[in-house]
Amino acid sequence: MIRFFLTALMTFSIFSAHAASKNITKEKINIEADNLHISQEDKQAIFSGHVKISQGGVAIGADKITALFDGDENDFQSILAEGNVTIIYEESTASGNKAIYDPKTTEITLSGNVVLLQGQNALKGSALSYNLETGDINLKGTESGRVKGSFTLK
Question: Which domains does the chain show, CATH number per domain?
Answer without folding.
Answer: 2-150 (2.60.450.10)
